[in-house]
Structure formats: structure tokens, C-alpha cells
Amino acid sequence: MRSSTPSIPLLISLLQAASLVASTAVPESVDVAVVGAGLAGLTAARDLIRGGKSVIVLEARDRVGGKVYNKPLANGAVTEVGAEFVGPTQDKVLGMISDLGLEIFDTYAEGQTIMYRNNTRVPFTPDPQLGGAPPVDQSSVLQIGAARQQLDAWAAELNVTAPWSHPNASKWDAKTFDDYLTEYADDADARFVLTTAVKALLSVEPKEVSLLYVLAYIAAAGNETTTGSLERLVAAKGGAQESRVVGGTGLIPTRLAEKVVGSQRVVLNAPVTKISKCSKGYKVVSRAGTVVAKKVVVAMAPPLLKQITFEPALPTNRHRLNEDTKMPPLGKGIAIYKTPFWRKDNLSAAVQSDSGSSRVVWDSSPDDASFGALLGFLLGDEMRAIDKLSPAEAQAKIIPDYVKYFGPQAQNVTEFVLQRWDLEEWSRGGPVAIAPPNVLTKYGKALRQSFGGIHFAGTETSEYWTGYMDGAIRSGERVAKEIQSSL
Ligand SMILES: Cc1cc2nc3c(=O)[nH]c(=O)nc-3n(C[C@H](O)[C@H](O)[C@H](O)COP(=O)(O)OP(=O)(O)OC[C@H]3O[C@@H](n4cnc5c(N)ncnc54)[C@H](O)[C@@H]3O)c2cc1C
Ligand SMILES: *[C@@H]1O[C@H](CO)[C@@H](O)[C@H](O)[C@H]1NC(C)=O
Ligand SMILES: *[C@@H]1O[C@H](CO)[C@@H](O)[C@H](O)[C@H]1NC(C)=O
Ligand SMILES: *[C@@H]1O[C@H](CO)[C@@H](O)[C@H](O)[C@H]1NC(C)=O
Ligand SMILES: *[C@@H]1O[C@H](CO)[C@@H](O)[C@H](O)[C@H]1NC(C)=O
Ligand SMILES: *[C@@H]1O[C@H](CO)[C@@H](O)[C@H](O)[C@H]1NC(C)=O
Ligand SMILES: *[C@@H]1O[C@H](CO)[C@@H](O)[C@H](O)[C@H]1NC(C)=O
């Protein structure tokens, strides 16, 4: 039977959708206005509420989570188009996952890795003792090993609170990571492997990022009792890609917002356009309304602050930091299959390639392997090229890469999800705002410096796991403490 009247379930879901959007109004005044409902902002709100403060969270998008997002699939499941992995020493995100009643599972990393180099496909066994030494020429293997040791040793000397205070900071900050490769790891294959690593981590070309920034990023890949290392950044087992969240990381911010912060304290579709000082604190102007707050938490990447007008203007150091740090072009091309067919070929789905649109791939299938998902990262210059294409053209360009790596079965895609974070108004890229040369030493100090009653959170401001969900949570906890002690 067909009818033009919408079904009752449909009506209910429409009503629910409408009520979610319209339910929270912007109050006249609060103790603290939090701008941004990513993990940083939501964590700050959680702790301030626990400290007895009145809080409103203003979020630009029609959803919470920022760069953590479960995108629905046609098969009824979800895929993680933003943050996906967690690992040891990421104590805060692991704690939050468990507090929210969520579970983790091992990232699929059984079997061989594919090296696609000089038009040749070579499956190899990643040897954990050698940090996964790839099948490249011997002089490069030596250069890669030496570079890893040297980068770790330099990083270990940095003070994670102030990497710019190291005696050699200006020297390192004047160089790009490309300069480092030219000096210490210039053989073709060493350059390829280390370039792939830094692109996989930061989605930048080596010439776009400061060496000091890379060292600080390595230093931050640990916790108060465990020194950071490049190995922990790039590894699955024992590293940042060790585990995933059952049901997807997107459940972390949605549960945090609904069960802990409270949906009534989160206003969606409320991009903040202006923050101006007034007699009672700050007038925070959003497209959903204006609130007067004693204190403001701005919880987003520094470059996004350029989309907000501050009155009075931010101090010069902070302004320059917002101007000069950059959001790298980053995306994912996720191909969904009936099964994770590569597993029966003894492949983990891990790829390192020197050509194509997607050169770094992981297995992103759900924990029960009820379907297969290949996650192809779109990084740096490859992302820039894909940005010029329509989604259909992008898919037509990316799938042949997967066929090259995994064989003709990779053509049998049931769904393709293209996520381009750099094209999103409220992200402008990812995973984190990076520093080109001579930015950290000049303006790094401004990262965590509050300005009047305005406090800055966001993963960029974290001492540990900057760039990660863990760093975002740590930053939210820090600003909440700063405000508790001053309000
Ligand atoms: C493709 C990709 C893969 C990643 N992989 C991992 C991973 O495997 N593991 C991991 O730990 N991390 C990963 N990350 C990084 C992780 O997603 C981020 O570090 C983290 O989510 C940052 O949280 P945040 O709260 O600091 O910022 P965001 O998540 O960016 O939150 C900022 C919020 O502010 C909102 N906003 C912006 N402007 C305004 C405005 N004017 N008014 C109101 N609201 C505004 C935004 O909409 C957003 O909700 C990945 C990121 C990407 C993009
Ligand atoms: C740091 O990480 C290690 C290894 O996971 C863990 O044993 C330790 O408890 C963590 N330290 C802190 C301070 O949380
Ligand atoms: C499968 O991969 C593992 C890990 O790389 C390797 O040790 C093993 O020899 C491989 N098995 C076969 C049959 O190739
Ligand atoms: C790839 O080609 C370059 C340049 O000819 C060469 O230096 C390198 O050793 C080759 N690498 C592999 C793994 O074949
Ligand atoms: C690290 O830097 C911070 C900020 O400048 C400083 O307070 C702290 O004492 C430094 N720590 C060490 C071990 O030098
Ligand atoms: C710092 O620079 C000096 C002078 O160039 C050099 O001798 C020293 O080894 C450097 N320290 C590190 C950790 O690289
Ligand atoms: C693709 O799927 C079709 C239909 O299920 C099947 O007939 C075909 O063999 C598959 N192709 C490959 C290469 O697996």
C-alpha cells in the first residue's frame, strides 16, 4: 500500500530531529561560555559543571564531536571519518572511553604490509624489532634507523611545556623536516619512508613543517612518566594505532554531550562570530543568540579563531599564532566491501606507497568483521589534488589505488565515503594545526596564555598527545582548572 502521508515512525523521527536542533536556547547569562563542542570543549564543560559553574556550549555544526565523527553507512553501520585510533599512554581518552561504558578492540594488524614502490608491489613482514623495517636498500635502512634514534633523542631533551626553550630550538625551528632529510637521510628510499611517516602523522609535505614542531610532536607522544617516541606515534601494537572503539569513536563525544554535559547545555547550529568585552564579562555572539559570560573557553584549532572577531583584538602574539599555524589538507577515502577480503591473503591492509592518491592505508573494518572497510588516508599534496574533483571523480581516482594494492576484488565496493576535512568551514583541515618554520619559537608561548577572561583549549594546546583526542581532553581539563581557580 502506498500513501502520500508520512509514516508514524518517520513523523516521530522528524519531530525528534527538530527537537534536537531547537531544544536548547541560548541563555541570557552564564558563568562560562564554551565555544566548540569537540572533545576539548565538551571536557571543559564537564569539569566546570562538576565544579558547580553554569555553562553553555556553543557549537557551529549541527552535531557535536568536531573532528571525531561516526558517519552513517547505507548498511546501517557507521564509519569513522575523523579520529579512529587510541593507544597506550593516551590515559585520558582511554579513561573517558571506559567512563562512558565504551569498549576498545585491537586494530586489525595481522599479516603482511604492502610496500608499493617504483611501480612494484612487495608484501613484507613488518618486523617490530626493527620498527617495521621495509624492503628498501641497505643504506636507507641504516639511515632510517639512525634518524629515528636521533629524532627521539632530540625530542627527549625537549621540555613538553615549552619546546621552544631548548638551547637549539631556534636552530631546529629555522629548518623544515625536508631540510632534516637532506642533511641526515637523503637516500631515495630513506626519504620515501620518513616522508611517508611524517605525512601519515601530520598530513604535511616535509617542506611545510618545522623540524622543531616534529620534535615537539614526538616528545608529546607519551605521558608524565613515559617519554615520547616516533615508534609510539607510528605503530599499531604498542603505539597510537593499537586500539579502536567498538561502535566507533563518534560515540565518545555524543555520549559525553548527552549523558555527562547534558544536551540542554549544548546549542547546535550556533557558530560564534564575535566575542566582545563588556561590564559583566564577555558578550558572546552566535548565530543562535547572544550570551553574556564571566569567562569564555575557546576550544578549537588556532587558525579557526580567525573566523571570530574579538573586541578588544587579541594580543599580537596570539594573533600571529592564529595566522601562522596551518591546518593541513587531510581526508579519508573509505571503501566498504562485503568482507575484509584482504585478510585471507594474509594482508593487514597496511600500505606504504610512493604513488597514487592514497598512499597510506589501514583496515577499518568493524570489530565483528561483519563487513570490510579500507581506510585510505588522503594526505598533503594528494589531498590538494583530490579537492579539485567531484566526489565521483575522486572515487574513480582512488579505487584503482586499492586495486593496485589488494587486487581486482577491491573494485567491488558497496559504498564509498569521501571525507575532506579541509573543505569544511568549521575544521579547515586536520588532524591538528601545525607550525611551519619560525612560528613555535616566536609565538608558541601564546598557545596556552589566557587573555583577560578568555581561555584557549584544543588539542594544539596539550603537552601530551597534541594532535590527538587524548590531547583535546587534556586541554579541556586544563582550562577548566584555570577557570575554577579564578572564578
Ligand atoms: C582524518 C583524521 C584522522 C584522525 N585520526 C585520529 C586518531 O586516529 N586518533 C586520535 O586520537 N586523533 C585523530 N585525529 C585528531 C583528532 O580528531 C583531533 O585531535 C581532536 O578531535 C581535536 O579535538 P578538539 O576538540 O581540539 O577540536 P575539534 O574536534 O576540531 O573541535 C572544535 C569544535 O569547534 C567547533 N567550532 C569551530 N569554529 C566554531 C565557531 N566559530 N563557533 C562555534 N563552534 C565552532 C567545531 O565545529 C568543532 O566541533 C584525526 C583527525 C582527522 C581529521
Ligand atoms: C603513562 O603510561 C604508562 C604506560 O601506558 C602507564 O603505565 C602510566 O600509568 C601512565 N602514567 C600516568 C601518569 O598516567
Ligand atoms: C603472514 O604474515 C605474517 C606476518 O607478516 C608472516 O609472519 C607469515 O609468514 C605470513 N604467512 C604466510 C603464509 O605468508
Ligand atoms: C626506487 O628507485 C630509486 C631511484 O631509482 C632507487 O634509488 C631506489 O632504491 C628504488 N627502491 C626500491 C625499493 O626499489
Ligand atoms: C618547562 O617549562 C616550563 C614553562 O616554561 C617551566 O615552568 C618548567 O620549569 C620547565 N621544566 C623543566 C624541567 O625545565
Ligand atoms: C645543539 O647545538 C650544538 C651546537 O650546534 C651542538 O653541539 C649540540 O650537539 C646540539 N644539541 C643537540 C641535542 O643536538
Ligand atoms: C565482484 O562482484 C560480483 C558480483 O557479486 C562477482 O560476480 C565478481 O566475481 C566480483 N569480482 C571480483 C573481482 O571479486
From TrEMBL:
InterPro entries: Amino_oxidase, FAD/NAD-bd_sf, Flavin_amine_oxidase, Flavin_MAO. Its cofactor is FAD. GO terms for molecular function: monoamine oxidase activity. Residues 1-23 form the signal peptide. It is an enzyme of class 1 (oxidoreductase). Residues 39-483 form the Amine oxidase domain. Substrate binds at F377. Keywords: FAD, Flavoprotein, Oxidoreductase, Signal. The keyword Signal applies. It catalyses: a secondary aliphatic amine + O2 + H2O = a primary amine + an aldehyde + H2O2. PANTHER family: AMINE OXIDASE (PTHR43563). Belongs to the flavin monoamine oxidase family. This is Amine oxidase.
